Structure formats: structure tokens, C-alpha cells
Amino acid sequence: MVGLVVTALSFVVDVATGPAMLPLRSVALSVVGLSGDATVDAIVWAIRLPVALMALAVGAALGLSGALMQTILNNPLASSYTLGISAGAGFGAALVIVAGPPLWLTEGQAIPLAAMAFAGVACAIVHLVGRLRGATPEMLVLAGIALLFLFQALLSLLQFLASQEALQQIVFWLFGSLQKATWTKISVVGAVVAGCTPFLVRDLWRLTALKLGDERARGLGVEVGGLRLRALVLISVLTGAAVAFVGTIGFIGLVAPHIARILLGEDQRIFLPGAALAGALLLSMASVASKTIIPGTLFPIGIVTALVGVPFFVWLVLGNRRAYW
Amino acid sequence: MQDVGVRYGAVPALAAISLIALASEVLVLVGPNGSGKSSLVRSVAGIQRHDGQVGFADPQGPRPRSSVRIGYVPQDIGSRTALTVTETVLLGRIGQLGLRVSDADLDAVKAVLASLDVLHLAARHLGELSGGQRQLVFLAQALAAEPDVLLLDEPTSALDVRHQLEVLEIVRSITAERGLATVVVLHDLNAAARFADRIAVLDGGRLYGTGAPAATLTAAMLGDVFGIEAHVAVHGDGRPSVTPLRAIRGRTAA
Ligand SMILES: Nc1ncnc2c1ncn2[C@@H]1O[C@H](COP(=O)(O)OP(=O)(O)O)[C@@H](O)[C@H]1O
Ligand SMILES: [Mg+2]
Q: What are residue B60's phi and psi, to 5 degrees?
């Protein structure tokens, strides 16, 4: 509840701030459609609102995928970012930037699709490792870390081969940016998050059982392999959608679940929505910070998330020293 | 079960075990470390690949595994999670839980926790419990499932003497009341002697023998299987007690 209010507040501040330094009153009037000033309307409806909503949608997708990852791998360091899923998506996008889109697609369509496809490839590899006999969650984590290095190496290779122009585009993309948000992109990310929900609802208790370890979960009748596969599919879709439009943003997928865990516990019925909310809040706050650290300048969001999130996270962890791991 | 065998890779851990656990009966498995007790219990629980067959039946005839509720408590493997005791025990009823937890489920959880004397822990996190408290919670989880078959792998290894007695008494009375088929792995031979209706002795993955406590817990068996010299006394109630004297030189139990 409190989380919802704080997130709503952050969203409002996000809409209210920006390089154009509009007075609060005219922004508010424009949002409710009473402004009458075309410039203000353009800024608010084409930039401020999309960016602020995108921050919420992407933050939620990252928080949710990170939470799922930590649950199915039973590991506090798991997230799409730390385990190479985001790196896979990033590589997919860079591939399109360097090699150009296939003929029948525009670059704007091909980049998200490639990002999702390679997030899927990364998840599929993690899944295949899990199919090995005697595979443990630790082995899956190791596979993910190996993927991180593999895709980073491939990405470096692409950057090495890329033209000056493509290189700039890749780097900008790797920093992460909300500025290219459009209503279409927001709908896609929002639809992906919403679309994952019914699938998750079916498995909430089974995911909770997984927190007791594979042996106990199996003893409770949970088909552990199938559950992990279903979760990995959702993770690749969520990560792919998030990374596809705003680039690789680290930290949120890792930290949002911890915030939810500390505040709400690990009953997945509240933990997963909590992590999504925490992710939305973190990215929204980062979006505000990216505009206000130096007024009039826009910092890349990927850099700011960590700057804003780390102090907040440290404060939470230090204030709450119960042993979870 | 018939001809149950388990191998890990090429290493056979269990060979052709045939054993029956009866309803309303506590069958206790004893045997040295690595003799295959856990492997056997895991096979029955359905989480261990094995040869041979594990079957379930009631007086009307064989029952498919899917219709049999199994309450399985693995050997204690620490679980550090932010789940509460209530949430953990609720998971025992995972088959019937929805997005909203019904009052009936919550009441059942409370009743089980109370019967094991741990209701005061209900809101605590699992990671904050002692080993013994955790064992009680997982036993509660198995009982909350209202199982037909109860499988307990060393359920008392971390309990103090009083709780050991209490737990085994509860297990025995529930087994009798609800007509469960209960299999318990125990290291404490005297506890086995007191609480078992029947004992099965495993040795190096084979079934050494099975029968009433007085018939299985003999000095000869203790020498053969455990490699110890022991004094065995049979009491008025027909149950033996074992006083270990010394390890037999030149024999190492597996
Ligand atoms: N996951 C495993 N991989 C390989 N060997 C195993 C595994 N689990 C058990 N074993 C081996 O199988 C044998 C029986 O083990 P177990 O059933 O756990 O014995 P117990 O419970 O009687 O101590 C032992 O020799 C043990 O080393
Ligand atoms: Mg064992």
C-alpha cells in the first residue's frame, strides 16, 4: 500500500520535472487536457508522460524477472543482468545495429525482436544445463555467469568491428535510455508484464515451495524441471521486452527483489508483485534523478540507477539484518 | 515395494530391496551411514530414479501413486529463506491452495503446529529457527498434508530427548488413528526398539533382515551390520534395549 503511494508520487515528480523547466501548474493542466498551450502539450504528452510511464513499465518488468530468477535459482545474486540474459539481449540488439536489419523489417522492429530472441537463447541454454542429470541450481547460476562473459565478449567483438556511427549507437544503447519512449513501446512492455501475470498466478505456491530447496519441493509434488522452464520463458520475455526498448539497465533486477524480500517476505503471492512495484519505483526515482542531478542535463538512466539505488539499498539492508541467505 | 534398486551413476547404492509397509504400522529403517536408507525412502517418495516397483494398495486393491498422499520429510538440509513457519506448513497442503488461503487451511495448520507444541513459532522465519525447531516445522508440514503414507528421514536427529519422545509418540498415535503407513529412518537403536512395530535393517544397500524389534535388534546383527559389540536386554514388554560396548576391531561400518 505504502509502496503504491510512494511509486505514484515518484511518477508525478517524474512527469513534473525535465530540462524544459515548465511550471508545475501548466504541466498539471496539460495532463488533464486543459492547457491550451501547444508547446506544453507536446512536451508533456510526447516526452514527459511516455518517459515516466516507460520507467514504471520497464522497472516492473525488470523487478519481476529478477525476482523470478532469484526464486527459481534460489540465489540472491541472480538477475537477468548478472546471469547474462540481458547481455544476450544486448548482443542481439547490437547485432542488428552492426549488421543491419533483415530486409523485411525496419531497424526499429528488428532491434527489439533480436533482443527478445537472444534473451530467449540465453534462457534456453540455462534450461538445457538444468536438464543435465544431477544438475543443481548452482550449476544453472554458473551457466548464467558463463553466458554473461560469453555475450560480453561477443559484444566487444561487435564493437571492435563496428563503424564509428554504429559504435556510438551501441554505446548509447548499452547505457540505457528512456528518452525514446513512445506510447506503442509502453503498450508492448505493459502488455508483456500483464500477459505474464495469469501464467504466474497458477504457479505461485509451487514457486514458494521451490524456496525450500529442490528436494523438499519435489517431496511436495512439485515438478521442479517444468516449473523452472515455465519461469525461464517468462524471464526471457520480460527481459527481452525491457531491454529491447530502453537498453541494458542493471541493478534494478538484482535489487528490487531484495527490497521486496526484506519488506514482504517470500510468499510469492506478495513477493512477486512487490518486486515489480519496487522495480517500478526504483526506475522512476532514477528517471527523476537523471533529470535533476544537473538541472538541464539528461544523464543516461543506466548510470543513474546504481547511483540512486545503492544508497537506498544499503540503508535497507543495514536496517534489517535478518539472515535470509 | 518390489526389487527396488538405486544407482548413482555406475555405483549401485541399493540392490533389489523388497519390503512392505503396512497401514497403521510404524516401520523403522536402521542401518549404518551410507547403507541406502535415504535412497530407499526417496524412491518411495517418488523423487529418486530407481529400478523395480514401488506400489501402493489398500484392501480394495492397488492404487495409483497419484491418488496416494505422501508426506515426506527429508533428512534435515538447512533452509534459509524468508518464509514464515505458517507459510512453510501451508505448503504441505499445496494441492488445494489458491490465491486466497482459506480459513480451513489456516485452521488445519494451526492445529498441527499446536499438536507439535510449536504454535508459538508460527510467525517466525524459517532461517531464525534452531535445527530441532526446523525439524518439527517440517514434520508439521508433512502432517498438514493429511497423508496416507508418512516418510520421515531421521526426523529426530536434532531434537532434545523430550522432543524425540514426543515426536515419536505423536507419529505412532497418528499412524494408528488414521491408519497411515509410516516409514521412519532412525539412528537411535533404542528409540527404534521402543517405537517400531517392525524394523528393517539395511546393510550396504541390501536388506539384512526385517521383523519385530526383539527379532531384529540382536547382538549378532549389531556385530554383522554395525560392527559393534553390544549388550542386548529384552524387557518385560518384549522390547529390547541396546547398550553398545565397543567397536569390533578390523571391521569398519560402511
Ligand atoms: N546424490 C548422490 N550421488 C552419488 N552417490 C550418492 C548420492 N546419494 C547417496 N549416494 C551414495 O549412495 C549410498 C547410499 O546413500 P544413502 O541412501 O544416503 O544412505 P543412508 O541414508 O543410509 O546414510 C552411499 O554410499 C552414498 O554415498
Ligand atoms: Mg540418510
A: -80, -10
Identify the pLDDT of residue B6. 60
Residue A8 in domain: no
Residue A57, domain CATH: 1.10.3470.10
Mean pLDDT of B38-54: 82
| Average model confidence (pLDDT) across chain B | 85
Domains of chain A: total: 1
CB A204 within 8 A of CB B90: no
- List, as ranges, residues with CB under 5 A of the ion ligand 2: B 38
Flag whether A39 is in a domain. Answer: no
| Cell numbers found for residue A130 | 538444468
Task: Please report the ipTM that was assigned to this predicted complex.
Answer: 0.84
Indicate which atom in ligand 1 lies nearest the CA of residue B36: 17
Residue A324 has pLDDT above 80, yes or no: no
Task: Work out the minimum CA distance from A262 to partner chain B, whole angstroms.
Answer: 8
Distance CA B195, CA B209 (A): 18
Give the global pTM. 0.86
Predicted confidence at residue A205, as pLDDT, reads 95
CA distances from A254 to A54, A76, A260, A269, A315 (A): 19, 8, 11, 19, 16
Q: Do A279 and A64 touch, CB atoms closer than 8 A?
A: yes
Query: Average of pLDDT values for A12-39?
Result: 68
Residues of chain A contacting residue B83, judged by C-beta atoms under 8 Å apart: 208, 211-212, 265-267
SS3 content of chain A, % helix, strand, coil (to 5): 75, 0, 25
Q: Tell me the C-alpha to C-alpha distance, in Å, between residue A310 and each of A69, A77, A177, A315, B140.
A: 20, 15, 19, 8, 40
Q: Is residue A21 part of a domain?
A: no
Question: Is residue B14 helix, strand or coil?
Answer: strand
Any domain includes A19: no
Per the structure, the complete domain to which residue A180 belongs is given by: 49-324
Residue of A nearest to B141 (CA): A220
